[in-house]
Design a protein that fits this description.
The protein is α/β, with parallel strands linked by helices. The chain is built from eleven helices and seven strands.
Length: 264
């Protein structure tokens, strides 16, 4: 694996993409304090959130049940010069971590209802009063799901690969762009599909019913998915506008950002 410096990675982490990853990272960062103890539950390889937060000096631990993702994450951390021990292949209930902030990002849509309830109950019991829970989930009825259907079921992925569309687009963009593309490390090796479909109202109701008080809810981006990423990857102007649309019309956004606190 090519070795990259922490400063190079930090710069790449601030480049937006069609999924709103930079917006998500900045939103999460806005809810953190310097001395918080933070856990990311279902971190995958840790590349998307745990690693940039660790490089910024936050006390963050990433956990995931997928051993392959954690092992790859440790290799990524090593290549950047970050502490591999921040990643652990373990269930949250089996740890002794009592965080001030729990991050559950792009996880709940993969879990059965009973598992979601158990996880949220464990988080609530582990955190102090007014501890913060930061949740991100896709809009189960939004643009991302539509694009994913076209890409995976209709055959757009096969067509794009056959015609070498990404290679052609990247060659054109390289002539125009002054900033590099985001490093293309994998975010996870788990292949679990979406079995829950959330709206902005239903994810807030779920957290409220689980003993949390939602105090902020907004949208990520308006258009997200493999097609959007293929076309707009690296184009800062359209991607920034896409993120603004997500905030302007949160109920219609491709994903949701929801912040809640414990109340007891």
């Amino acid at each position: 694996m090519q070795r990259n410096s922490a400063s190079q990675f930090a710069g790449a982490a601030e480049i937006e993409d069609a999924y709103g990853h930079r917006k998500r990272l900045r939103w999460i960062r806005s809810h953190l304090l310097a001395d918080d103890r933070i856990i990311e539950i279902g971190c995958g390889t840790g590349f998307m959130l745990c690693l940039p937060l660790a490089l910024e000096g936050y006390d963050v631990t990433g956990i995931d049940l997928d051993v392959t993702s954690i092992e790859e994450g440790k290799r990524i951390f090593e290549s950047i010069g970050a502490d591999q021990s921040r990643l652990r292949a373990v269930d949250f209930s089996e740890t002794d971590i009592h965080p001030d902030v729990s991050i559950v990002s792009e996880v709940l849509e993969h879990l059965e209802g009973d598992r979601i309830k158990d996880l949220l109950e464990t988080i609530r019991k582990r955190m102090p009063k007014h501890g913060r829970l930061l949740v991100t989930v896709p809009n189960g009825f939004g643009w991302f799901e539509f694009e994913s259907f076209l890409w995976n079921r209709v055959g757009l992925e096969w067509l794009a690969r056959k015609l070498r569309v990404q290679r052609a687009l990247d060659a054109l963009k390289t002539r125009w762009l002054t900033r590099p593309f985001r490093y293309s490390y994998p975010s996870t090796f788990s292949d679990s599909g979406h079995i829950q479909r959330f709206t902005l109202r239903s994810i807030q109701r779920l957290l409220n019913d689980s003993g949390f008080e939602v105090f902020e809810a907004t949208g990520t981006v308006m258009f997200a998915g493999p097609v959007s990423n293929l076309v707009f990857r690296g184009l800062e102007g359209p991607l920034a506008f896409n993120a603004r649309l997500g905030s302007r019309f949160p109920k219609l956004a491709a994903g949701f950002l929801v912040a809640a606190r414990t109340v007891s």
